[in-house]
Amino acid sequence: MRRACGPGFLFFVIERMRSLNLSSSSRGSNELPHRLPAIPAWLLLVLVLAWLLPGLIGHEPWKPDEAYTFGLIEHIAKTGDWVVPTLAGEPFMEKPPIFFISAAWVLQAFGGVFSPPDAARLTAGCWMLLAMLGTALSARRIFGQGAGRWAVLLLLGCLGLPLRAHQMLTDLALLAGIAWGICGLTWAPVRPLAGGLMLGLGGAVAFLAKGLLGPGCLGLTAVLLPVFLPSFRTGRYALAFVLAFVVGAPLPALWMNQLYVRDPALFQLWFSTNNFGRFNGTAHLGPEATRFFYLKTLPWYAFPAWPLAAWGLWRAWRGQIQVSLTAIAPALLFFVINSLVLVLAADARELYAMPLLAPLALTALTGLVMHREGSRRWAGVSVLVMVLAVILLACALISGYALATGTPHAVEALLTRKTFAGWTPAWSPGHWLACAVIVILVLLLWPRVPRNTPAGFAWRWVLLITLTWGAIATLWLPALDFGMRYREVFVALKPALDKPVAENECIASVWLGEPQRALLDYYDGVRTRRLETMPDAWSCHWLLVQSRRGQMPALVNGVQPVAVSNRPGDDTERYMLYHLAQDVRTLWPASEPLPGKAPAK
């Protein structure tokens, strides 16, 4: 099924694009008539900050991605070693280091003002701003002045983005790199120097964020554009292509060279296993893709960008609007190529679809441009969004009050059944004040754009997302942090771990995950010797076990743990520290297989 969606499907899509009512002029689309409400720059900045700031600070590293990412950032901040990403003393070669390096710089700059995790998390906001800027410049080229601000709003309105945009994730750097790479391709036919510079830097950032996938899709897009569109078969585009390679190659080449010089085996591990191995499934690192995963994920993850994009392209096909094919083709073609790569990959997560949001936001602008007055249909849609906003705000306020005070008891009991089990209601005036500011801002901005247009719907949808996320990231933040962090787990273990540390005894571990190793190092200053990877771990008399769903190694049968800890509300994952009479090698049963990877979550 996946193989059927290969190059043949790609050629079909490109030929179908040619049948749309899209102008092939390379002069840009500034001359094409369109009608988008004007948004002042200061107003857009206020809305972006209201969307971006809540949730960036005020909580510990959350499981699973933030926890291990913070461990990698902290290593670079302490050691200055930018070549080999290192987690709790062990090389971690799944991703190149650009996000970790940038976050380490921010951590060093603002670590005295904010807590280390909060300071590092500010980097997520910086990369998101860069992604917005790249998307805006692409939209300006496609639709003319003022369209960039609407492209930013469409990007912020995607349902899957708010939570991920406020976490320490390398995918945010990838999103920024892709946005700037598409921007470079969009501008290359008319401004080859600027286009080549943006394409090269975007490709370099994408490479140093997550490896070959991002720049590979950008490169394939750049190569195929001249095949299908005569407007890209020019000396200007060729100049931009060459300049992009000259600008984009040095930084990735520098890192790869330094990594190879440091350790050829680590270079091979990164290059083969963590690029091609993750794609074809031989690495067994990520969650295995299920059938139609992205077909089931994108409808909610990219809403409302994808229906607006589909509607806009249908309008172009019907001749109701006209858009420059030269300008919009890079976004369309990249979306098709990246989608095919994701479908064919052996691993799948909703997180991997993040690079698709930038080209989707650009294409969705075709659904906003108007050549005539609005209709009652869009006014009705805007009213539905308003009703939804009222309902969600009421739910957020009631549940936030329940988490803060413990009443009403029925709501409080429902909320704390699993995720917030053990949560002690606590009133936080600062969070309520921040929520009130966001609510007032949304109320003031709500009527700013006429409601009887698709732009009016998009405007109110973004305000709805800002309101919902703002309420969650303020009223719910203390309780969410309580349910998603590991502080209580490792603070509780620290007194028991202090004894072997004080006596300079080694501590072995089995099935201890990457997030847990990073935060054990952060909270307790302890690095265990893993039985899975370190031969000297077998001589230890102390053993830390991360047990999932009661699974335990046979050597601890009948042995009482010195300490037991688990995350509040999590009855499937436990951490047990054992003091053994003999070393692990002596006690490990011959019939039991050697420990491999931790049991699946």
UniProtKB/TrEMBL annotation:
UniProt entry tagged with the keyword Transmembrane helix: yes
Listed GO MF terms: transferase activity
Upper lineage: Bacteria, Pseudomonadati, Pseudomonadota, Betaproteobacteria, Neisseriales
PANTHER family reported in the protein's UniProt record: MANNOSYLTRANSFERASE YKCB-RELATED, UNDECAPRENYL PHOSPHATE-ALPHA-4-AMINO-4-DEOXY-L-ARABINOSE ARABINOSYL TRANSFERASE
Protein topology in the membrane: Multi-pass membrane protein
Regions crossing the membrane: 36-57, 97-115, 122-143, 149-165, 172-190, 196-225, 237-256, 298-317, 324-346, 352-371, 383-404, 424-446, 458-477
Database matches in InterPro entries: LipidA_mod_glycosyltrf_83 (IPR050297)
Principal place of residence: membrane
Subcellular location: Cell membrane
Record protein name field: Glycosyl transferase
Keywords (A to Z) from UniProt: Cell membrane, Glycosyltransferase, Membrane, Transferase, Transmembrane, Transmembrane helix
Superkingdom field: Bacteria
